[in-house]
Design brief:
The longest helix has 26 residues. Strands 3-2-1-4-5 form a five-stranded mixed beta sheet, with helices on both faces. The chain is globular and about 65 Å long. The chain folds into two domains: 134 residues, Nucleotidyltransferase, domain 5; 169 residues, 2-Layer Sandwich (Nucleotidyltransferase, domain 5), CATH 3.30.420.40. The protein has eleven helices and ten strands. By secondary structure, the chain is α/β, with parallel strands linked by helices. Bound molecules: 5'-O-[(R)-(carboxyoxy)(hydroxy)phosphoryl]adenosine. The site of 5'-O-[(R)-(carboxyoxy)(hydroxy)phosphoryl]adenosine has 19 residues, from helix 5 and helix 6.
Length: 336
Amino acid sequence: MPMLTLGIESSCDDTSAAVLLDDKRLLSSIVSGQDTIHAKYGGVVPELASRKHLEAIHPIVDEALSLAGVTLNDIDLIAVTQGPGLIGSLLVGFSYAKSLSYVTNIPYIGVDHMAGHLLAIYLEEQTPSFPYISLIVSGGTTSLFICHDFTHYQLIGRTRDDAAGEAFDKVAKILELGYPGGPAISEIAKNGNQEAFSFPRSWLEPQSLDFSFSGLKTSVLNTFQQFKSRDAVPAADISASFQKAVVDVLVTKTLLAAEQFSIKTIVLGGGVSANVTLRETMKESCLRIGAELHYPQPKFCTDNAAMIAMAGYHKFRHHSTAAAYDDDVYSRSTLG
Ligand code: KG4
């Protein structure tokens, strides 16, 4: 029997809904962002984010259903992000999904946001085979996983402090480039010299697959302050050199993971994987070692409900049980 999944995502500052037919065909995907609201604060303000989710959730779900040409009666499963994320934001989508499930008797299932990023690549036509090394780089996470199959993921490395996206956002704030920082930095970096500053790369212990970006961020801040006092900040050169430092570490550690586990398929996910320099550098490196590289289109790298529907579909198929009505949201990932 074909199965229609309604995906709902509200873990941070994007309200999103999607309808997926089995794990094959995405019938609709709507994302309503809040960048204009948070931009003036240089980052997401949790209280404002939850309020905006409350306003958006019902119209966004309605729009996703109507764009897919279906009604709630056609839906077989509701998949919703349960965590990690901002508790207030998560609660809006999770409570909405629970209520929908309660009044319609459609089963609902809680999905770990990270599982969504890990499986987002299956929204594309060209899909990888298991096992693969997955680098998830977003505003809240920088982690390396081995994906053994659709429901088994092994955490093999993670950031010990800032996530890569968080570093992009903080550096953009220092350079007064606006929010979200990643796209702003990568845009201005096009006109910069990536060799202008040799910012530190934190490799940690030999063979470690963990990450650390807080030292890099501090180094950028110190450099900025030196130039600021002279009133001439070379923002493009700082951005390009910072981006190069982040990309060097992400690519080197991902290749190290591929070597350590003898896995020759690499998949990228999360908002930072939309970064063109990261994609290009990873592509060249994979070509050099004969590895296969996959990355989703930018719209499936950043937060979206289509990937939540995909991960929810597989979780439900595997466990065949719905979530309970007293289940709660969580702020830290359950995947390691
Ligand atoms: O996955 P995502 O939408 O949300 C989280 O779950 O965090 O990722 C958002 C993060 C932000 O930190 C944003 O600055 C970063 O992804 N980002 C980028 C780019 N586009 C988004 N970072 C670097 N380059 C980009 N092109």
